[in-house]
Amino acid sequence: MTPTGRRAMFLAAASVVAGVLVWGLTGLPDFGDYHGPYGTILDRVAVGERHGTNVVTAVVFDYRGVDTMIEEYILFASVIGVTLLLRRQRGERERPPSEVAKGRGEPEPSEAARVMGLGLVGPVILLGLYVVAHGALTPGGGFQGGVVLATASGLVFLTGSFLSFERVNPIPLIDLAEGVGAAGYPALGLLGFGGGGAFLTNVLPLGRPGSLLSAGLIPLIDLAVGLAVAAGIVLILSEFLEQTLAIRGSRR
Amino acid sequence: MTALQVVVLLLVAATGAVVVSVREPLRQAMILGIYGLLLVVTFVVLQAPDVALSAAVVGAVAMPLMIALALAKIQERSDR
To answer: pLDDT per residue over B20-65, tens digit each?
Structure first.
């Protein structure tokens, strides 16, 4: 096809796409103009029904708790996928520490990076725990807090080395945390049957709205998700680091 | 829509275009981090703090880090 023909074809197709796009966009509701019933209803009833002041978390871990459980398994599945894909394969070997000559190892991080990172590890862990623990009360929750916690272990890598990363992240323990977190969600859901309700029914006492131990089952599910997410991200991170830093292809 | 929201949305659009137009992968990963931070500002301005937190940890920290690590691995392979 000649360049002119190609251009004519592109322009024809592009004008059709642009037309449909503009047509579709004009039919959208105005910016910030919300007409769905569920948001309005939940805004009114959620705090009274579940005693959790963060309606988003109440929706995520309670009203649509089953959806969130499956979402948690998306991360779980991707952890398994990364672990399988990045394992040591035939023809690859792990570089033994003895291979690195003295004084010619990995470049040391600068003093500034080390001080900054070490200073941040504590506050980041505290922030992560806060975000997980207050999921039912203030913005945040298990997913967000979990990734914040995992970031703290990434900081350890940045300030030290891969070896210190491995030391503060014992993989068998992290595996255990991942399993407990992932299994904890459905296990907590089963409590609903004990109370004579459906799966994930909020059977625990709801407590006083705004206090740390309120909203019944929600903070516990939140904790399970936080554990699973933090462990999952650390596992993915360690697989990537190991693949990048320790595994070498065999010399031909 | 407030003026602040307009400004932030325009910035997001501009940064998104920059991310696509940069051709050097490592530089692209860093700009992707900046783009992630701008998304955080967007969600705060739109009063969605929960989403902002998710965007902060995933878009500005986790994703650029993993891209950088993957790039390091590719670099090492092509060096040999």
So the answer is: 999 888 898 889 889 999 999 999 998 888 888 888 888 877 788 7
Q: Which of B51, B57, B67, B76 to mutate to test the interface with A (most CBs of A within 10 A)?
A: B57
B36 close to B60: Cβ distance less than 8 angstroms: yes
Give the C-alpha separation, B46 to B43, whole Å: 5
For chain A, the structural domain boundaries read 36-248
A249 SS3 class: strand
Q: Is the ipTM of this complex over 0.85?
A: no
Q: Say whether B53 sits in a helix, a strand or coil.
A: helix
Q: Which of A79, A233, A244 to mutate to test the interface with B (most CBs of B within 10 A)?
A: A244
Closest chain A residue to B64, measured at CA: A237
Whether residues A233 and B49 touch (CB distance < 8 A) is answered with: no
Could you say which of A147, A150, A244 has the minimum Cβ distance to residue B73?
A244
Q: Where are the alpha helices (DSSP H) in A134-217?
A: 142-159, 162-168, 171-194
Q: Whole-model pTM?
A: 0.78
Q: What is the pLDDT of residues A54-103, one digit of tens each?
A: 888 888 888 888 898 888 888 889 888 888 888 776 667 666 555 555 55
In chain B, the number of structural domains is 1
The residue with tokens 């070896």 is A163
- Residue B46: give the domain boundaries: 3-79
Report DSSP letters for A13-51, one per residue: HHHHHHHHHHHHHHTSPPTT----HHHHHHHHHHHHHH-
